[in-house]
Design brief:
- The chain is of the alpha+beta class.
- Helices cover 21% and strands 34% of the residues.
- It contains eight helices and 25 strands.
- The strands form three sheets. It has a 19-stranded mixed β-sheet that branches. The protein has a three-stranded antiparallel β-sheet with strand order 1-23-21, sandwiched between helices.
- The chain is globular, with a radius of gyration of 23 Å.
- It starts with a helix and ends with a strand.
- The relative contact order is 0.11.
Length: 397
């Protein structure tokens, strides 16, 4: 059973033309493990597909899109879903439970936003905040200084571009010793830095980047902990290299990622089970213990904890860089992996008061929402429940 059949049945259902047999077939497919995977792919594929023609009358599209926006507070877009799924609750489009029958909530009031919740308190999402450490050890809290020139390091000016970006501007040839700066984001923070060569780096929460204030010599070397997305300025005469710093006391080797000009993401948190380097554009070489591996776009190099070699797999690049684009984007993601992201972005502690932690979730939720929006969306699956106590999130059966 392919996506075309599922798409057809949903269109028939949303337009009111489905026969009794087609309705029964549709709900049966939603409970089928094979077809549920196809349906999840269909949901995620359609979410960012802005080029396809809308196959139903605009009134159906408008009704469904307003329903989705009312539940998720997604920004307005010209086209997102190409299917007007009508009476299928918007929540089903946003979160789907892997391997479990989908919950079709016929009586859901889609005009009630997810932010209208039963939690006695709520927690704001993360924001643009970071600390800059200069070569002399002085620190600057970036979210508390005004835009404009905030300092100089040798022949390089440091400029706060806006609320979430910092730029290094080298006007003259480097002279004297090489100075190093570091930018670090706390849990609940993110920031962008434009390096002296024009390369752009986006730092996710609980991450840091150490770099020279002027690139000289045979290569451009930076050091990373946590997660970052890179867009590297091309300079074949001076390759760019990222050294992924191993956690203190881990006994683990560092990782080297070498590029000329490319877009890629590195996720290397201490509490994750692996280091993942994902290539979106260009080419990179990844070295970790064993032989060097060269990636092609759409591929991911994984260094598992305790392993002395890399394995390369196909990557879901939209999921990998969702954090940079302001989204939580999951596909068959375990509850524990999902909640580790929640801990970092909302600066909370997660406690499990349930033995059932093997649920997998697929869905898309904006990172700009309070934590209640995400938790309530997950609760719509009927398989998990949450309680908020201060900055502690308790996962209940």
């Amino acid at each position: 059973m392919g996506k075309e059949r599922i798409s057809y049945l949903l269109q028939q259902y949303s337009s009111g033309r489905a026969t009794k047999e087609e309705v029964e077939e549709m709900f049966g497919l939603m409970r089928s493990e094979e077809s549920s995977a196809l349906l999840k792919d269909l949901i995620l594929d359609k979410h960012n597909d802005e080029e396809e023609e809308i196959s139903l009358p605009s009134r159906n599209w408008d009704r469904m899109w307003h329903a989705v926006r009312s539940v998720t507070n997604l920004p307005a877009r010209k086209k997102v879903f190409s299917l007007g799924w009508g009476r299928v609750a918007a929540a089903v489009l946003i979160v789907v439970m892997s391997g479990v029958a989908y919950r079709i909530l016929h009586k859901t009031n889609v005009n009630k936003t997810i932010s209208q919740v039963h939690y006695s308190n709520d927690i704001l999402p993360g924001s643009n905040k970071a600390i800059l450490t200069l070569a002399n050890g002085a620190t600057i809290v970036l979210d508390s200084v005004h835009n404009g020139l905030i300092g100089r390091q040798g022949n390089t000016s440091i400029v706060k571009v806006d609320a979430g970006a910092l730029a290094y501007d080298t006007r003259s040839k480097h002279e004297g010793e090489i100075l190093y700066n570091a930018i670090s984001t706390p849990r609940g923070g993110q920031y962008q830095v434009i390096l002296p060569d024009g390369s752009k780096v986006w730092l996710n929460a609980a991450s840091s980047l150490r770099f020279p204030t002027s690139f000289v010599g045979k290569e451009r070397l930076v050091e990373l902990t946590g997660e970052a997305y890179f867009e590297i300025a091309k300079n074949r005469a001076m390759p760019f290299r990222v050294y992924v710093v191993p956690p203190l006391g881990s006994g683990r080797e560092g990782m080297n990622v070498q590029v000329l000009g490319t877009h890629f993401n590195i996720k290397a948190y201490e509490n994750e089970q692996s280091i993942r380097t994902t290539l979106l554009e260009g080419a990179v070489k990844v070295k970790f213990s064993g032989p060097e591996v060269q990636l092609q776009p759409g591929r991911q190099a994984i260094a598992d904890n305790g392993a002395n070699m890399l394995r390369v797999v196909d990557a879901n690049t939209e999921q990998v860089v969702a954090w940079k684009n302001g989204l939580f984007r999951f596909k068959e993601t375990s509850i524990r992996e999902l909640m580790r992201e929640v801990e970092r972005w909302y600066n909370v502690e997660v406690v499990y008061n349930t033995e059932k932690t093997d649920q997998d979730f697929t869905g898309i939720v904006p990172r700009t929402q309070n934590i209640s929006a995400l938790l309530n969306t997950l609760e719509l699956t009927g398989t998990v429940h949450f309680k908020i106590e201060g900055r502690k999130i308790i996962v209940l059966p």
